[in-house]
Specification:
The structure is a single chain. Helix 2 links the parallel strand 1 and strand 2. It is built from eleven helices and eleven strands. It is elongated, with a radius of gyration of 20 Å. The strands form three sheets. The chain has a five-stranded mixed β-sheet with strand order 7-8-6-9-10. The protein has a four-stranded parallel β-sheet with strand order 3-4-5-11. Strands 1-2 form a two-stranded parallel ribbon. By secondary structure, the protein is α/β, with parallel strands linked by helices.
Length: 251
């Protein structure tokens, strides 16, 4: 909400929460710490709240996004989704929105992560199988899914660069006990949780005698909000289809 008000090209025209939310009926701007004349009251009915909208932004998490699918299909307005943690079946359903409307999903809305994802594929491809790939991510203690959606996106980009076709058989999520030697052609993914970390992702390429590290650190969650607003402005007016942050940035 702060990011929308901070951008002169955008206007908040509706705000939605679950039917059980204690925020229903309250001022969206005041809850965000902003005092404006044209106030928006938080509602539970999406169709009413989105009546005057050119584009929707959804960060409600897996349960909220899945629960609103029928509403999104009915409204048929461009939508930016930043929820993560979907099962493969749930993501297929969400991705299906692109068949009838402009749809953009991103595990991370930051420009830096979009560039890191591009680099992950490029570096993995150029270094080849003589380098082992490991990824470590860290987030605040309240994050519900692990590893993060961003970590999976980066790891899958590296797998694509290395031409690994079956990511599920390539990814190694934990090591404990007598694991034996590291398996060739795998990608290790580890998650750390604690404190108020906005998000840190480091991709390691371990070779013989040298290591290359690519790191992105989010020092404030504001970058994700600003990125979502940027994506929403870009998506408004587009034809039906599935889009990504890479499309927004012209990568």
């Amino acid at each position: 909400i702060k990011a929308v008000y901070a951008d002169e090209a955008t206007r908040l025209c509706g705000a939605v929460d679950s039917e059980q939310s204690s925020f229903l009926g309250k001022s969206a701007s005041l809850l965000a710490g902003i005092n404006v004349h044209n106030d928006v009251i938080i509602a539970s009915e999406l169709a009413i709240a989105a009546k005057d909208a050119d584009v929707l932004i959804d960060f409600t998490g897996v349960a909220g996004t899945v629960a609103r699918l029928a509403d999104y299909k009915s409204i048929k307005k461009p939508i930016v989704v930043g929820s993560t943690g979907f099962t493969a079946e749930q993501f297929e359903q969400i991705n299906g929105l692109g068949g009838t409307m402009p749809f953009l999903w991103a595990s991370n809305m930051s420009v830096g992560v979009a560039m890191m994802t591009q680099l992950a594929e490029l570096v993995a491809n150029k270094l080849g199988d003589s380098f082992d790939i490991e990824l470590v991510e860290a987030h605040h203690k309240h994050k519900k899914d692990a590893p993060s959606g961003t970590a999976l996106t980066i790891a899958k980009a590296a797998a694509k660069g290395r031409r690994f076709n079956d990511f599920d058989n390539v990814a190694t999520y934990a090591r404990h006990g007598l694991t034996g030697e590291r398996k060739q052609n795998t990608i290790g993914i580890q998650a750390l949780r604690g404190g108020d970390i906005a998000g840190t992702h480091t991709l390691y390429f371990y070779g013989e005698g040298e290591t290359l590290e690519i790191t992105h650190r989010a020092t404030s969650p504001r970058i994700f909000a600003a990125g979502a607003v940027r994506a929403a402005k870009w998506l408004a007016g587009k034809s039906a289809g599935v889009y990504s942050i890479a499309d927004v940035l012209g990568l």
